[in-house]
Design a protein that fits this description.
Blueprint (H helix, E strand, L loop, with lengths): L1 E7 L4 E6 L17 E3 L1 H5 L26 H20 L10 E3 L9 E2 L6 H10 L13
Antiparallel strand pairs: 1-2, 1-3, 4-5
The protein binds zinc ion.
Length: about 140
Amino acid sequence: VITYDMRCAFGHLFEVTRPSSVEASNAACPVCGEASTRHWSASFAVGARASAGPSREQMPRSWEAVRSGERATVRGWHELARKREALEQKHPELRGDARPFLAHEGRFAHRPLRAGDPLPGSVVERASRGGQSVNGERSPDAQ
Ligand SMILES: [Zn+2]
């Protein structure tokens, strides 16, 4: 889950917590009930937080989660990702599972497939039947 800093039309600031795949905009302001939008200056203010920021696990992976590419949102996440990367250079123990995601949609939405994960049997079967490699890697029994 991710905690978003939100700001309503009247300037009330509050936080909402959402799964990383769910967009937080339009959360009703707890004070006045108005719709809200992300409050980026709070999220990215230098020195505003001592936290390490969201881990890679918490960063959005779907197009919807970055508001279909809305620029401020994408820029904000890029900035967070860049800071996280710099932090991980200094503190490799924070890196966690840094293997790239190969698939994160459809059947993989809840359990993304990462490089090195065993492929589900049906995917391997389809790949070898179609003569296509999956992600550039030959399945063990297709040699
Ligand atoms: Zn409000």
